[in-house]
Design brief:
Blueprint lengths: L1 E8 L4 H9 L8 E7 L3 E7 L5 H5 L10 E7 L6 E5 L2 E11 L2 H10 L14 H9 L5 H11 L2 E9 L2 E6 L8 E5 L2 E5 L11 E5 L5 E5 L2 E6 L8 E2 L1 H6 L5 E2 L2 E2 H14 L8 E4 L3 H13 L7 E3 L13 H11 E3 L1 H4 L3 E6 L6 H13 L4 E6 L21 H10 L7 H4 L4 H14 L3 E4 L2 H8 L6 E2 L1 H4 L4 H4 L12 H12 L3 E3 L1
Parallel strand pairs: 14-23, 17-20, 20-21, 21-22
Antiparallel strand pairs: 1-4, 1-10, 2-3, 2-4, 5-6, 6-7, 7-8, 8-12, 9-10, 9-11, 12-13, 13-24, 15-16, 18-19
Helix pairs in contact: 3-4, 7-8, 7-15, 9-11, 12-14
Bound molecules: iron/sulfur cluster (SF4).
């Protein structure tokens, strides 16, 4: 998982780039990078595993002068990549997961192309993407062909002498949004980066769309692919920032709606206190409190200074340590009370059990009712999120506990009206040691977001995605984009839209 930010300005852009990139710190914990282009390219990359973006980059600011720049905060690899290609030099930052990267890297190696940025994995994904782009007839063609070749997802910012290319893969798993203010343009993964840097949202880049942003304005180099929209639902439920809008829909508002839906299905319990596991459970808890009329209180507070998210560090030991240390219980709010604890989701359940629920019981809670803002996670993400193995998921462990073995077909357990589903939820509730446990339904989660169901990726919960996204070998793009549609799109691209500064 990564967050990317870019800016083109009539003046020096480095300070805006610095703050805009920093606003993506919730999306990655391992590396940060910035590149600016003035008379020459200037790039810095730092390890952020032990310190925050601002502290690492503030001393670089003085040496980074230019009117165009890109920045990234990433959980996996050093970026931006700097490449001298046959289209000239460029820097590339991505938010990408490429399932078939070994196969693609092997293909390039066979052609005599080498890789220099070897990180903890064999190949740096962003370097692989840069090399694929460089195989095109030009940068736009290279980006399109790269999108055709990868199985997975990719949003990218490419800083070149001609401006910043911003592009989103054909399925649009991760958003990219263009902002505008007098004399400057920006492009971001998170619109929360806009307000304090003075930008207003100008346009949501569509799945498959490629735009070029420079001093003259923004020009569409390829139109969106349209039908293949599969934006990540988890952005609204968990991973996105509350102040951000994706596809024009605000995250905090969706979380409040999720909480309201949970409360509506909860007429059979009486509670004293509604709460949320900070941070992402708080919006859901507030919605629950508004709907139920019960007070929202904070039995658990997060010691924010110095602690990042518990999900993103790649090592389980670090994730557990962070989770244990960051939540502090408030006994006076907990003791003797029946508490609803809202949370975005359960992945393994071990952190929730050991570092939240245990603290509530230890501090004298009378009852604990856990409410999850999304359905049981059944399939590890293949498109956008850091992937956990299927065996780790709490729902799969429950199925194994109930059936005595793993199941290939888990459809009965994903149907919230089936007895198997009820037994699975009971099993997880017992495992967590809570009074009751309820999950959001898929229908309520989709209704809370408000986009048509077919535009949302629901793979985590249903195991379904368009065939073209599954990618056994080459992507069958034809399934989502018929030849006639592709022809029309390319023709439209010959007369590009232009928005001027
Ligand atoms: S599988 Fe889940 S986390 Fe991955 S893109 Fe789809 S909704 Fe998002």
């Amino acid at each position: 998982m990564s967050g990317i930010f870019g800016v083109v300005s009539k003046e020096d852009c480095s300070e805006v780039l610095f703050y805009g990139t920093d606003y993506h710190s919730h999306l990655g914990t391992e590396y940060g990078g910035m590149a600016v282009l003035g008379t020459e390219f200037k790039r810095h990359i730092h390890d952020l595993s032990q310190s925050q973006f601002k502290s690492k980059f503030c001393t670089d600011l003085g040496s980074m002068r230019g009117n165009k720049g890109i920045g990234v905060i990433s959980s996996y690899e050093e970026q931006p990549i700097y490449l001298y290609s046959r289209f000239g030099p460029y820097c590339l930052a991505t938010n990408a997961i490429v399932q078939n990267e070994e196969e693609l890297a092997a293909g390039l190696l066979k052609k005599g192309i080498s890789f220099s940025e070897v990180s903890r994995k064999a190949v740096n994904t962003t370097e692989l993407i840069a090399k694929l782009i460089s195989m095109g007839d030009d940068l736009v063609d290279g980006i399109e062909k790269m999108f055709d070749a990868i199985v997975g997802s990719c949003s990218l910012l490419l800083l070149s002498r001609g401006g910043i290319y911003a592009a989103r893969d054909r399925f649009g798993y991760s958003p990219l949004i263009v902002g505008k203010k007098p004399g400057a343009w920006a492009v971001t993964s998170e619109t929360s980066a806009f307000y304090n840097t003075g930008f207003e949202t100008f346009k949501y880049i569509e799945p498959g769309e490629i735009v070029l942003i420079n001093e003259d304005g923004i020009v569409q180099r390829r139109g969106g692919a349209g039908k293949a929209h599969q934006v990540c639902t988890f952005l609204w439920v968990y991973s996105g920032f509350p102040a951000s809008d994706y596809e024009g829909i605000n995250t905090e508002v969706v979380r409040e709606k999720c909480g309201r839906f949970l409360a509506r299905r909860d007429r059979d319990i009486t509670v004293d206190v509604v709460s949320g596991v900070p941070d992402s459970g708080v919006g859901h808890g507030l919605g629950y409190a508004m709907e139920s009329g019960k007070p929202f209180r904070r039995p658990l507070v997060k010691y924010t200074p110095g602690y990042g998210r518990s999900y993103t560090p790649p090592s389980q030991h670090t994730r557990d340590l962070v989770a244990r240390m960051k939540l502090i219980p408030i006994k006076e709010v907990i003791a003797g009370n029946s508490i609803v604890l809202c949370e975005d989701s359960i992945v393994r359940g071990t952190q929730l059990k050991n570092f939240a629920i245990k603290k509530l019981w230890d501090c004298g809670a009378r009852e604990i009712h856990v409410r999850l803002a999304c359905p049981p996670l059944m399939f590890p993400c293949r498109f956008s999120f850091s992937t956990r193995s299927i065996d780790e998921l709490a729902a799969r462990r429950a199925i194994r506990g109930l059936e005595g073995h793993d199941l290939q077909d888990v459809s009965a357990y994903t149907d919230d009206r089936a007895p198997e589903y009820a037994r699975m939820v009971e099993w997880i509730a017992r495992d967590l040691g809570v009074t009751t446990l309820r999950y959001q339904t898929v229908d309520d989660m989709v209704a809370a977001i408000g986009l048509p169901r077919e535009k949302l990726c629901l793979y985590c919960w249903t195991g379904w995605c368009p065939r073209a996204c599954r990618g056994k070998g080459a992507i069958d793009i034809q399934e989502v984009e018929k030849p006639a549609a592709r022809k029309a799109r390319l023709e439209a691209a010959a007369q590009p839209k232009l928005w001027q500064s």
